[in-house]
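Example 5.3 — Flagellar motor switch protein FliG
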Amino acid sequence: MYGTSEEEELSNQEKAAILFIALGPEYSAKLFKHMDDDEIERVTLEIANHKQVSAEQKAAVISEFYQMAMAKDYISTGGLEYAQNVLEKALGAEKAMDIINRLTTSLQVRPFDFLRKTDPSQLMNFIQNEHPQTIALIMAYLEPDQAATVLSSLPPDQQADVAKRIAVMDRTSPDVIREVERVLERKLSSLVTQDFTSAGGVKSIVEVLNRVDRTTEKSIIENLEVDNPELAEDIKRLMFVFEDIVMLDDRSLQLVLRQVDTKDLSLALKATPKEVADKVYKNMSSRAADMLKEEIEFMGPVKIRDVEEAQQKVVNVIRTMEDKGEIVISRGKGDEMIV
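Solution (predicted structure tokens):
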């Protein structure tokens, strides 16, 4: 914070509260969507304690927020050295160093950040001849949509191998990451900063597979079922969860409900978000929906494990129907659902 000693004594939490007050309720509400419950509670309490905020405080906090945001953008664009040079020209050496120091204590620039700004089709030209482990490492740090495009573009015999390597990946040595980045940096002539982070894992490859076309996904799963059945089962279990029912169109869900045991359905709905239950009730007759609600109401306490097992049974029905071509689950952006 730059200004009076009173302003400099403000804590980060107080600055956040003042920023929210300055932004007003509409923009503050949008920011709340990107915060967890504990953060929202702390900031809300701080806002309640600030009944009066001077115009000078608002201006100082907004100025600091803007400077920090721009500094973060500069780091993402060209690295720490580039960000420092730009900030020094704009704010002077002392302020620039202060901003950089505060950002680098909390900000971790993810490896291969420069690749997330690269078109996936162009990216393929740089990595298609790399070892599958190198491709897997790069894909693990890409956005899921980018990684899905890259995975779909790989030769069929490489797709399952790369998918498996991403799924079993845990942590990678910073030295290995830096070496891979250096090779790509020479090709793209980009300046990059990196830090020790973890990537990959089953959830990572599931996010990618949920965005590729059904043919690519099926080919990868079938190969994994032969090469690593346990891993294939872990991936399939996460590919479509019970709450994803809201993604089904009404007619598809109606077809699914005809195949699901009523007892399994009532147990599965026992502890589920309201929008999921509403979606199910909407696609049943009024009489059937009322009976199902009554059965759930009189069910009494149940074990979470039993609920999860019932939900998995419903998911298995959906996956079986998809495999048979009776329904098609929407995948990726712009992918329409067909029955």
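Remark. Confidence is low (pLDDT under 50) at residues 1-8, 189-197, 332-339.
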